[in-house]
Amino acid sequence: MSGPSSRPKSEAPIADARDPVRKAKPGRAAQSPPAGESPPDGRSSPAAEGAGPLSPSERLRQMPQALLAWYDRAARDLPWRKTRDPYRVWVSEIMLQQTRVDTVIPYYEHFLAALPTVRDLAGCEEQKLLKLWEGLGYYSRVRNMQAAARQIVRSFGGEFPRDWETLRTLKGVGDYTAGAVCSIAFDGRAAAVDGNVCRVLARLTGDRSDITLPRTRADFRARILEVLPPRSGDFNQAIMDLGATVCLPNGRPLCQDCPLEKFCACREGDLWRELPVLPPKKGRRKEQKTLFFLFDGEGLLLEKRPDSGLLAGLSQPPMAEGLLGPAEAERWLTDSGISGELLTSMEGRHIFTHIEWEMRAYFFRCRELSGAVPFGELGRHPLPSAFSAFFRFFRQLRNGEVLI
């Protein structure tokens, strides 16, 4: 999610699409193919030799060998790939949902330093947990993680389930996450199909099904299982890397760098503008909010958001619906039983996935506030990144860095 800005960014629907950091995987030299098979780089195919168009099944059958050979030399160097601990694999997969790789890396390292085991996560106090997650957004993810951690401790003695079906019973663990953990941590025979994978498979096979539909993902998952090699975890991560770095979502794919180029239906027909098929984008709902930064010599007034819904359980300054004018803001303060001097105001906006907030913040210096959070304790409270620019301005205002 982006913070208040005149040029907000949209949420990315998938993990980082362009992280260039790559490193050859140690100890995995490419192997020569058996006699009669195509070379591991996938550069020859019946279609390339004039044998006619390949069927989708034939294209898929050629995929594993070419893809794994490419992955062995081009895999991204990511911290969660240095372990097969299912807890760490799971944490990374949850963090990567709708969040870019380069954003996730420092959060992943900080989170695991604070909560190194599933038992630590299960027993973590909520405010500390939300503070560790602050800035990643989609806070239901970390609440579901804690609920799942408690399931693991309660029902499995603190040991992660190893099979796809049992992993699916954990709170917040869907088909993709279960497949990723099962295959990466345990070499289980499971497919991990997310938006990146759907895009690659739709382009490879020329499939024109809507990739956002559950039945399309289920079909792709079944088709992957038909060709899944013994290195299931590496195979699943290889498709993710291919979709993130080569078969790009927003613009022309880098077909010249793709190990599947010679047997890809999209490449043959130059169909990258048409595939994958997605439904029309829905417009975002727009809402207007007014924030009140009320402070005295000791602290700032904060309130806790409801325990369900958007930004559930986080702390924020008092908020009113609509964009109030200065006179209306003064009247709101009086009606709240608080007296204070209006110093200044600022505006900003924040884009969530389906909602856009237009915001105005008023900064009041008050004579005395009951229940204000001491300035030295503000850092302990989980604060929405939607308000980060306002809090930066507030710190500058208190430090005398803003002329009013």
Notes on the structure:
- This protein is α+β, with helices and mostly antiparallel strands.
- It has 2 domains: 56-269, Orthogonal Bundle (Endonuclease III, domain 1), CATH 1.10.340; 285-398, Nucleoside Triphosphate Pyrophosphohydrolase.
- The chain is 38% helix and 11% strand.
- The strands form 3 sheets. The protein has a 4-stranded mixed beta sheet with strand order 5-1-7-6. The chain has a two-stranded antiparallel ribbon with strand order 2-8.
- The longest helix has 19 residues, at 56-74.
- It is elongated.
- It starts with 55 loop residues before the first helix and ends in a 6-residue tail after the last helix.
> How are helices and strands ordered from N to C?
HHHHHHHHHHHHEEEEEHEEEH
Main sheet makeup: 4 strands, mixed
Instruction: Tally the helices.
Output: 14
CATH topology of the largest domain, by name, is Endonuclease III, domain 1
CATH superfamily of the largest domain: Hypothetical protein, domain 2
Q: What's the count of strands?
A: 8
Helix content: 25-40%
Could you give the order of strands across the largest sheet? 5-1-7-6
The CATH architecture classification of the largest domain is: Orthogonal Bundle
Count structural domains. Answer: 2
